[in-house]
Amino acid sequence: MADGLRKGLTSYGDAGFSLFLRKAFIKAMGYSDDALERPIVGITNTHSDYNPCHGNVPQIIEAVKRGVMLAGAMPMVFPTISIAESFAHPTSMYLRNLMAMDTEEMIRAQPMDAVVVIGGCDKTLPAQIMAAVSADLPTVVIPVGPMVVGHHKGEVLGACTDCRRLWAKHRAGEIDEAEIEAVNGRLAPSVGTCMVMGTASTMACLTEAMGLSLPMSATIPAPHAERFRSAEESGRVAAAMAKAKGPKPSDLLTPAAFRNAQVVLQAIGGSTNGLIHLTAIAGRVPHKIDLDGFDRIGRDVPVLVDLKPSGDHYMEHFHHAGGVPKLMAQLGELIDLDARTITGAPLRDIVARAEHVQGQDVIRSRDNPIRREGGLAMLTGNLAPRGAVIKHAAASPQLMQHTGRAVVFDSVEDMTLRIDDPDLDVAADDVLVLRNAGPRGAPGMPEAGYLPIPMKLARAGIKDMVRISDARMSGTAFGTIVLHITPESADGGPLALVETGDRIALDVAARRIDLLVDESELARRRAALSSSAAARPTRGYAQLFHDTILQADEGCDFDFLTAAGRSER
Ligand code: FES
Ligand code: MG
């Protein structure tokens, strides 16, 4: 029997009175004793007027409540923080761990037997899952779903790969003011998350692959009726989990589940951010995502899903082609089908029911992949002793092995001030370097790693250059871009030592990123380096963030939130 309203009761010596009080107050909402005696399913409300990606959350919640009640349990909706990419200053990543803390503590604080967590816009799904893992109640995850596509002059458009591509054309003078305004109204034609294989879509696919959400829930478009039927079913499943007291995230998040997630991350050509978030989720279990191991998986796993930014299609096309179950079917023995899911069924059952859509070309077979290798590669070298990542699926083949002259920007502000200066000394085969843009340095590791092509080169038709930084990049971006250089420059990383004019060698096949400067010269520069460490904020969340943020290879969680740092409660 589930605990319902009795769960987490602090009795202070008189449990009967505590329950009496609890019931007296909740009855103010008009609930009957019959309702209050049932197992309780908490539902997080991550709706916000600032978060258009979560615009369908009220409807999702209604559907979940219906499902919970049809299955004989009691739904209780409670608010948690909502984070939207475009409205989160200084960066949404700065707030991810705050959201995870909020959700975890509210799950712990309030009586519930199971919880449905709703997320979608980039940082929200990882935050909700990190929270759920730490609270470890039976949990169903619901992604809000992708937007439907837009159309412009006969062309299909998607946020935000095409935002960047068309804005770059506007910068280069190929699209005028009136047309870019028209495009602006067509890039995001509905509520829901970016409909390319950006971070939101990536995390929704990984969630499904880890068995934490219902089959197809990653890909059903946000406005579709099917989205709400899936939410209703999620409510039923959560009610069953509340009664059965499981499975819990700790039951499902096995090494096999994390390996499956990494296989899917490579096979979808997923976002580089997905790797940070997966590492953070794993750190809560605890489980270590080994970056060399991830790179090895990438050498065996082909990219099979043909979605922007590395391919041609959008999430709704992926959905109509069979979604994640079909992808896992195509991946064959690369997926461990014994891994269990929220319904208790193994992935084997889900994959066996995958839809076979004749003639679809979005989910390829292994003998006809988009790329023979996975989407992401890990690099190391004297510039990145603890690693860096490149999404080589979305990079220019001719730049995969490239040595060039460094052009260094000391911070995001410095880059913003100088990148379009007509007098900037830069050529197309130079390597653009951005530093002090990591987890602690910026702070919050902004998506500044997609340095724009300097205006004068863009106008000359240059579309891509090697760009390297300790920052992140939007999963929707395209280019030969090395990210997450670890340790970051503000944490004593060698990126702090690079000077304009140095030679930098990128060799993706060899998985190397190196600064071609003598060790003795680097030692001299290190000794002369004035402490580049970011100033410690004087109070509040900023200080907590500064003091406890981990590096990218540890998922950028706060050190005290990882399982190793967790106090038992
Ligand atoms: Fe919310 Fe892209 S801005 S998912
Ligand atoms: Mg994004």
UniProtKB/TrEMBL annotation:
Domain Dihydroxy-acid/6-phosphogluconate dehydratase C-terminal per the UniProt entry, residue ranges: 361-556
**KW Chaperone (keyword) present:** no
* InterPro entries, per the entry: Dihydro-acid_dehy_C, DiOHA_6PGluconate_deHydtase_CS, ILV_EDD_C, ILV_EDD_N, IlvD/EDD_N, Sugar_Degrad_Dehydratases
Among Pfam families, the record links this protein to: ILV_EDD_C, ILVD_EDD_N
Q: According to the UniProt entry, what is the EC number of this protein?
A: 4.2.1.9
Q: Where is the Dihydroxy-acid/6-phosphogluconate dehydratase N-terminal domain?
A: 38-349
Gene Ontology terms, MF aspect: dihydroxy-acid dehydratase activity; iron-sulfur cluster binding; metal ion binding
Q: Does the keyword Metal-binding apply?
A: yes
Which keywords does this Swiss-Prot/TrEMBL entry list?
Iron, Iron-sulfur, Lyase, Metal-binding
Xref: PANTHER family: HYPOTHETICAL DIHYDROXY-ACID DEHYDRATASE (EUROFUNG)-RELATED, HYPOTHETICAL DIHYDROXYACID DEHYDRATASE (EUROFUNG)-RELATED
Family to which the UniProt record says this protein belongs: Belongs to the IlvD/Edd family.
| Name of this protein | Dihydroxyacid dehydratase
Q: Which organism is it from?
A: Rhodopseudomonas palustris (strain HaA2)
